[in-house]
């Protein structure tokens, strides 16, 4: 998974971990350390501070901000229309056409924005409206009243209609169009907006990968025809990119680790629960030497609001014969955090069995069935609960010879394909317990994307599994 080191199907965890840390540090739109790529967003925030007067080209068209009204035309109108799209989409408003012509539709969207921002809704853009646009376009926030679906526009950023293949290192107007489209496609509360600076750096590449994951495209960070088509679709609608939820499984869950705490932000578990989530698996340990910093706080806070909760261990096969030792490390950590496996709300512990998380995608070097079984047996003895195994059929096929050795264990299976109705079962297994179907879910109360699951059973089944 990419945001909790459990990720058998896509780009490895360290890549996105670096990305999220860079975003948390404010280096959105750039590789870590590339401060030259964030002045637009930073200046927009500065412009919103009391006494600040600096004009900002948030969309990269022009930093000239003359008074505008119906009948105006030109680059400043394009900039205003683009900023209006960024600032109002969070209120479910379909983007308007960015054509440089201030017509009746633009005037109406200005009035909508002014009402959202608590300004006089006169449909004209003066200094106060410009300042509010600069701020809310760079850091979008929901506004009321909510919009209603309307016909998507093809031109929502106004830089160019050309769509060349783009990759890291590219520069120019097509990159500005890309960055603007990414900001319109990805929900800003979970994906901090990129600076629209025309420089395809590390931050832009990371955001491309995140969009490709969300839209179920190949995650290569290159913007070719399919990625452009997906961006054109999502950026022109009144909704942000979210993977579809599997039909037929009404009980929702999620998985968390430090990656769901960008810049140390806490998870609002009450908001998560209010959004309909019923269960969570929380990262506890990795290998022999890592305990997740948020194990105790997340596990206990999630239980406190009524979620069924399980701690999980990411198994590393970097040394031979460490199954029992890794189990001992996990047992000590979760007991210190209060987990017994027997309390109301305690789900069985989870054993995360997947490819190496070093970016190689290789099978764990020293993983054997005997090592995995040693972990499972040690933990089951300690807590009196048969562990759940998090894995993927292709992993067991490729790395453990399609072994049926784990067929008696309940399974949390990862498969992010949107073309399937349930995950394929490993050799010998008859059913699955949880299906992790995406790594791009957006949950109220969490400031970063998370992996999401559905439960294969009823609420009563979940309650029995959680000792309730």
What topology does this entry show?
Blueprint lengths: L12 H12 L14 H9 L27 H14 L15 H13 L10 H12 L34 H13 L16 H13 L10 H11 L16 E5 L12 H6 L2 E10 L3 E2 L3 H10 L3 E7 L8 H14 L13 E3 L16 H15 L4 E4 L1 H7 L11 E4 L19 E8 L8 E6 L3 H7 L3
Parallel strand pairs: 1-2, 2-4, 4-5, 5-6, 6-7, 7-8
Antiparallel strand pairs: 1-9, 2-3, 8-9
Helix pairs in contact: 1-7, 2-5, 3-4, 3-5, 6-8, 11-12
As a percent range, the share of helical residues equals 25-40%
Radius of gyration from the alpha-carbon trace, in angstroms: 24 Å
- Here the CATH topology of the largest domain equals TIM Barrel
Chain-averaged pLDDT: 88
- Count of helical stretches: 14
Low-pLDDT runs: 1-53
Number of strands: 9
End-to-end Cα distance: 28 Å
Q: What is the architecture of the largest domain at the second tier of CATH?
A: Alpha-Beta Barrel
Order of helices and strands: HHHHHHHHEHEEHEHEHEHEEEH
Strand order of the largest sheet: 1-2-4-5-6-7-8-9
Name the CATH superfamily classification of the largest domain: Glycosidases
User: Biggest sheet, open or closed, and with what strands and sense?
Assistant: 8 strands, mixed, barrel
Global structural class: alpha/beta
In total, how many domains does the architecture comprise?
A: 2
Keywords for this entry:
468 residues, alpha/beta, Muramoyl-pentapeptide Carboxypeptidase, domain 1, TIM Barrel, 2 domains, 8-stranded mixed barrel, 14 helices, 33% helix, 10% strand, elongated, disordered N terminus
